[in-house]
Amino acid sequence: MLNRIKSPLQVADVVRECGEALGREKSRFVICAGTGCVAGGSMDVFREFERLLKAKGLYGDVQLLFEGHTSPVGVIFSGCYGFCQVGPLVQFQPKGIIYTKVTVQDVDEIIKTTFEEDSVVERLLYRKHDGTLCPTEDEVPFYGKQKRVILAECGHINPEDIREYFATGGYQALASALSKMDPDGVIDIISRSGLRGRGGAGFPAGRKMALARESQGGRKYVICNGDEGDPGAFMDRSVLEANPHSVLEGMAIAAYAIGADKGYIYVRAEYPLAVTRIDIAIDQARRSGVLGKGIMGTDFDFDVEVFQGAGAFICGEATALIRSIEGFRGSPEMTLSYYPTERGLWGKPTLLNNVKTLAFIPKIIANGVRWFTGMGTKGSPGTAVFALTGEVRNNGLIEVPMGITLREIIFDIGEGVPGGREFKAVQIGGPSGGCLPRELLDIEVDFDSLLDAGAMMGSGGMVVVDDTTCMVDLARYFLAFTRMESCGKCVPCRIGTKRMLEMLTRICEGKGEPEDVGRLEELALDIKEGSLCALGGTAPNPVLTTLRYFKDEYEAHIHEKRCPAGLCANLVTFHIDSEKCNGCTVCARNCPADAITGEKKKPHVIDQDKCIKCRECLSRCRFDAVYTE
Amino acid sequence: MSEKIKLTIDGKKCAGRPGRTILEVARENDIWIPTLCFDERLEPYGACRICLVEVKGAGGLLPACAAEITPDMVVKTSSKRVDSIRRTVIELLLSDHPADCMTCESTGSCALQDLAYRYGIKESSFKGEAHSYHLADDNPVIERDPDKCILCGRCARICDEVVGPGVLGFVGRGFDATVSPPYDRLLEESPCLFCGQCVSTCPVGALTSKLSEGAGRPWELESTDTICPYCGVGCTLRLWTRDNKVVNVTAPMDKGVNRGNLCVKGRFGFQFIDSPDRLKHPLVRGKDGRLRKTTWNKAISLVAERLSETRDKHGADSVGGLASARCTNEENYLFQKFMRAVVGTNNVDHCARL
Amino acid sequence: MFGSGAMTNSIGDLGYADVTIIIGSNTSETHPVISMEIIKAVKAGKKKLIVIDPRNIMMADFAEVSLNQRPGTDVAVLSGMMHWIIKKGLYDREFVETRTEGFKELKKVVAAYTPAHVEKISGVPAAKIKKAAELYAGAARANILYAMGITQHVTGTDNVRSVANLASLTGNLGIPGGGVNPLRGQNNVQGACDMGALPNVYTGYQKVADEGVRHKMEAAWGVELPEAPGLVSTEMVRKRSEGGVRAMYIMGENPMVSDPDLNHAGEVLKNLEFLVVQDIFLTETAELADVVLPGLTFAEKDGTFTNTERRVQRVRRAVEGPGEAREDWRITCDIATAMGYPMEYGHVSEIKAEICSLTPSYTGISWERIEEKGIQWPCPTPEHPGTPILHVGQCARGKAKFMPVEFKEPAEKPDRQYPLVLTTGRILTHFHTGSMTRRCKALDELVPRAEAEFSPHDAKRYRIKDGDMVELTTRRGSIDVTATVTEKANPGVVFMPFHFAESAANVLTGGALDPVAKTPEYKVSAVKVKKKPSK
Lengths: 629, 354, 535
Hints:
The complex is a heterotrimer of chains A (about 625), B (about 350) and C (about 525).
Chain A: H1 10-23, E1 28-32, H2 35-39, H3 42-55, H4 62-66, E2 74-78, E3 90-93, E4 97-99, H5 107-116, E5 126-127, E6 133-134, H6 141-144, H7 162-167, H8 172-180, H9 183-193, H10 205-214, E7 221-226, H11 235-242, H12 244-258, E8 262-268, H13 272-288, E9 303-309, H14 318-325, E10 350-354, H15 355-367, H16 369-373, E11 383-390, E12 396-401, H17 406-413, E13 423-428, E14 434-437, H18 447-452, E15 461-466, H19 471-485, H20 491-508, H21 516-530, H22 534-538, H23 541-549, H24 551-559, E16 574-576, H25 586-590, E17 596-597, E18 605-606, H26 616-620, E19 626-628
Parallel strand pairs in A: 1-2, 7-8, 7-10, 8-9, 11-15
Antiparallel strand pairs in A: 1-3, 3-4, 5-6, 11-12, 13-14, 13-15, 16-19, 17-18
Helix pairs in contact in A: 8-12, 8-15, 9-10, 9-12, 11-12, 11-13, 12-15, 19-20, 20-21, 21-23
Chain B: E1 5-9, E2 12-16, H1 22-28, E3 52-55, E4 62-63, E5 73-76, H2 80-95, H3 111-118, E6 142-144, H4 154-163, E7 169-171, E8 178-180, H5 197-201, E9 207-209, E10 222-227, E11 236-242, E12 245-250, H6 264-268, E13 283-285, E14 291-293, H7 296-314, E15 319-322, H8 329-343, E16 348-349
Parallel strand pairs in B: 1-5, 15-16
Antiparallel strand pairs in B: 1-2, 3-4, 3-5, 6-9, 7-8, 10-11, 11-12, 13-14
Chain C: E1 19-23, H1 27-30, H2 32-43, E2 48-52, E3 65-67, H3 74-87, H4 93-99, E4 100-101, H5 103-110, H6 115-122, H7 126-138, E5 142-146, H8 148-151, H9 156-169, E6 180-182, H10 189-194, H11 211-221, H12 233-236, E7 247-251, H13 255-258, H14 262-270, E8 274-279, E9 291-294, E10 303-306, E11 311-315, H15 328-338, H16 348-358, E12 375-376, E13 400-401, E14 420-425, H17 441-446, E15 451-454, H18 456-461, E16 469-473, E17 478-485, E18 493-497, E19 525-531
Parallel strand pairs in C: 1-2, 1-5, 2-3, 4-13, 5-6, 7-8, 8-9, 14-18, 15-17
Antiparallel strand pairs in C: 10-11, 11-12, 14-19, 16-17, 16-19
Helix pairs in contact in C: 3-6, 3-7, 3-9, 6-7
């Protein structure tokens, strides 16, 4: 595929060569093949493109470009392009046309209209909720306020072909580190850039590197933490799927800086596509001489192995992750007298960083400190990647400059709450984060402001909820998750999360006692401060923030035995508005408990004794006749 | 020797060598810090969170069992925050722990009971699910009661870190985690050596000795420190006695070559002492060839007479004596003195080579 | 070589060694608490372990390198290691020059023991011998632990000398975490030796043959003492025609289970003119006695024991003995008195004082001083703190002398008739002749019977299944025992414990003795096996 690179200076040539070769392709269709789009059938779409273009005699294999041929149009699949809500996505480059929800049946028309007729298939374009058509990325609001840095290539290049990464200037940062910088120089740049760990805690990345560099102890390791486990978060997966080389390059630079010769990528076994693509990337990188023994002809050795986690949330915690690689039960260790940077994997100095942190490293080395600090806020320079999900029009993966407001994210990028509902809150940072209310929509998002508000950057999950969500129930949901994922090592987390969950469940069931609010808060604070690791230390955040911002909902459940959102089954009854009901019988036919009776075309009624509060009637009724009390 | 580090604990000026923990220095200075998952034979673990203390300038609370002392450290072992967390930890543990202290084997030597008493916790304010396992381990020495387990991990760690086989480990996670041999098997189906080191470290009643069931509360027993009668290591044993009967054996942590460690024989091999087979009277072989009870006077005279007779008739070297590798130094000394000075032979030996 | 049979170092300093060799000691079963010190250090990454044993013992699970030698080839293996250490220049030149003599002779003898040659003798791959040698010699501090697997051979003394040579060669003497450390098998076997319960020495290894010492003892005891050293136990228990004794006084020993060639020993004991046995149980030996005297257990008396690290420790009475049973020392006193030599002591501490006054190495170890904590001999004065490490700066006898030895085959080699090697020893749950542990209900329930261990290879060859009854036969006799098939055993070697009177391993063991130490060769007997028809 590529010849082995024999010197760092040679990388520029390879970059140019790849750029030129790919430039011989005049236009290309890019089919998003992130996990979401693949699930939506995008690989079938991709194959259909291949088939049809071949049939038309248009399709040129990338290999041909490298052999000097030109091609009028090509087709590749890419990693996640972010806008999962409307996938499978197809782009037409260089024009930047984006088609949404593409099916196999649409392919022929797309090729004809877009390529052959130089026009657009309107019905497949993204349509704003005011009806405006948005043919290109610049016009789609979802991309409008984004600042894509580590996601820049995601969705644009083929993650399974290292030449595409080279064509974007890939591995030049590693080349310049190896040829122009000593390890301290690398650390100096990362330190001055102010890059903070993207795993959630925001520890200064340069300082961590420096600690690992200073540590003595023979062999050293770099570990990439891709054990993303928050419900609703898929940032790390997407980066690994869409641009695995950026992570490998970041790891290699970090390894050079600290003096490591071995790296591990810890990735969930539930991310099979990511695993496959990393494996391919490692293989290609080794063969290209940018990974393995004597990288780029220098005496720097660094190789990477993939370690698949078994799915325990706790293994995202650094020390538990290390134990897990060592073959032990994944439970956290105390890091009081030393950090993993001093004694980590197999007792050796270990630099452990999140996927995104590592992906930033080559960007910063390549573009410089000023470029990086030019984005974001003073305390949190750069950009942040969020998985925007929940009750928001545009779901997907976004990258925004630090300091952007929640409002901009949710209402501009996300285009607000659908279905005529009201925005109620946003849960940031997954189960370890907090729930922020409408009043805080204008806070500028960065590591410190979120902490002040009781939430945290966490790994970057952002779940928007509307007014049909009960905040006590939401806290209960997240607690159910952390209780399940607690490793059980320390008492506060092991029994404390269980007892909090039980209390929240009682409150939701209308069995709450007046003292429960105080008891819950006290227990939450003790767990927060008393737990061994960050899982327990942050598990109470959803409870504490909902208590802080939505105390009235707790009180309504406890004192009035009422769920303001009408969600908690024990506290709500379902009724049919006889004026609105036209007797269509849909509700009665779908009621699993046979609790709804009524003659055709006459108002129906719900037998409260039989009703199991499954909400089926509420969601089925097209006339808004079912209401709760 | 490196210079000692000076620090203040609860207003008291203390000092300790580098690498010492807050807990170690506090204990040397008679300052009490509660612990549950700590055992000086093991690496610090930091799981119970009961030893958290306030350290001026530290970000949060630190576990005293693991946090090393630093120069001019100011430690408070008790404060509103610390006590609140300790109370919460105790209450949480009690909320999933049987309240059967009246009949529990460990009453009086239970760390959880002591803490509940010390902090005046009569009842946990947390209500909720409590575990109820039913376990029947057939082995003759170790009783396991997972209902009482507080998951401090001491048993699992001592079996791994000190004894070696690592028979016990955590199974499952979170609230439903348990400690068990692999695949939830019984101890007798595992490579367990039955040393009872796990029993020795269990702070509650989850692991107890079957040999001492119902033998008495600690305050009803007397204890005597002595040396183990088995191999040559010379472990210090603490014999617990009641009504002239040894009912339990433990090893003091602060004494002897073994510092709290024992093996299966040392810990569980005491039943021979009051075996019904014990010889209680001198015996002499009668004309019919059977051994019969006799008096000490008759027995001693007979021995003296017959030994003298052989010596006088055939010379001192026709008599031999075997002393004992199980008797005391004083007894062995007298025995060889007897053989040499009284019988007049150097024919004295014991089973040193066997 | 450099003193007496005791650990040169302390149990507390075993953990300090960067490398530990365990040879001929099934430490986790015979000295479990010492094994814990070792395992803890290995698990904490502070120590590397080398295990040299014919069986795959548990300690081997924690070893960096594990060597399975053919039983009785220890001299060859140790010589192979020394050969390699000298060849690679890994020995401690300064130590060898300043603190030893006889290096040239050693070098000459081990020159023939190339790892390849040793592989042929012992079956241990040459690469493993080299690795073990490099590991041991490369450590800043390294110690050697051994037990009966070294001594219970006709070449026992040679084995011990080889161990000592190895330690001297690498300068591992007189330093914390170094030394040569025999692990003694019984609670007070060290003390019994120290107290002169040996035919050639008085207390503290003062020689019977030394006139000055004898005069000191004569003066103290007020009698004339015999000059000639006496017989060791295996010499006493012989037919009269072969020099055996006519009458015996046996205190707390059970040769009817522990002696080699039990059929022979039983015959001798039965034919004694007079046998008095003093014990806590009617042991297999006591059953043969003319008079049986009931003594007390450790829990019923005061006194001292000396452990394997030479520490003299207090034994304390916790309960009263049963019936008319009496302290053993009082019984001895009464017999002495009845024989016209009044022995009277009001309390054991008075005996202790007498020991101190007559024993240089015990002089400072008074009853009062060891109330709280034991003291390690030598302790020559009341102010002396005791000696945790022997041979610091200088060996007891001045320079350590290398005693090079050539490999010799065991007395009995397997042949067509007796094709397997039987090796006997101890197991974790029982002790010695089982008189105590077999009477502990819990222990006997844990391990109720003897089991002979066969390798899967031999089991297949002799069609033996786990749990089968087999008959083991040597030139001395036969016994029935339950077979167990285990990876712990290596092909060609059968192991069985000697604790069980009903399957008495010592019916099988040989009469061959080490010519110097007079230790029986329990570790090597040629044996044949026959499966018993199932009932």
